[in-house]
Amino acid sequence: MTTIKDSVHDHIRVDGVARDLLDTPAVQRLRNIRQLGTVSLVYPSANHTRFEHSLGVYHLACEALDHLGIDGQQAERIHAAALLHDVGHGPFSHNLESVTHRRTGRYHDDVHGLLSQGEVGDVLREHDLEPDAVADLVAGEGRFGQLVSGELDVDRMDYLVRDAHHTGVPYGTIDHGRLVRELTFTDGELVLDEGNVQAAESLLVARALMNPTVYSHSVARLTKAMLRRASERLLESPDTDVDAGTLQRMDDHDLIVALRTCAETSEFSRRLDQRDLYKRAVWAEIDDVPGGIIESKHESIREFEREVADEANVDPECVILDVPGRPSMKESTTRVLVNGDIRRLGQQSPLVEALRAAQYSQWRLGVYSPPEMRERVGRAAVDVLGLDIEGALVREVRNGLDATLDQFVD
Hints:
mainly alpha
């Protein structure tokens, strides 16, 4: 058994298959992948990694299994899945997932091939665990997959608390101990037991507050968009042999070196290294954006960027269009027992509609460019995209002033 000191859960005891998996290259690689990607450019202390998060998920999975009375081989499968649930992540975590998925068709939780080979596969088989069965749990399949990847998963319980701890914001605090203790299976569904509507709401509120202040902070979105553009240029460059499969298996340091040494990406790399960032030229609310733009695929968005650049008479690489998906709230489907019936939180809690409205009001389309081009690019973007609103243009930077969450300008 190994005991590891953790900043969130204090001491984590690692035993069995998890102990043997701990020192495999696939798990150790997670030490070099930041949990929050480029968010450290907003919150300097947000340098925690997927490795420590994976340990936290394993720890909470152990507590949940003890509470549920699950042991033996089934428990070991879940222990392995909890520790391995993030081994499929590429560099900078979710920041580049859309880039690699377009080229490989794989998301980070599609790890069947990864778990069946190398040292991870050897360790699993030594413990009489079938790699495909563990990979199914990572993907959230089956009765117990809900515990690893679902509305009430231990992944979410750890990352909300951990991300809040390392960014220093007070919004991700949840009573994960109570949430774990109140989990139960009813008719094959993982639910929170009677009397826990408020506990379920705490997950919803924590996620709703962390989204605008951390996960979708304007600078986090901007730097993520710049990193995506740089990575796309890297994959398209004839001067490197990096393909999407190679990119998926890199860690943060590998990608930084590749971007710095490629002529087509060195300027983006310099800007990210020195925090010499593009600025927001347009910041538009959802009601002011034509629906066709919101639903646009990647190639259509790139074509819009080229049209904006042509209208503004600037290099196309100086325009980045950032279009988030429509607001969604997965946590609202959390299941709770109320008077013996299984109900979705969205049906039971009056908070859900209010939080959905807040999420809707926080949605923004962003257009980014170098600071000296911002006004030209902004006006061109309004014309090309058919926004037809002056309020979307960003004309000044106001550092050090108090503002509401949707008024932050960097």
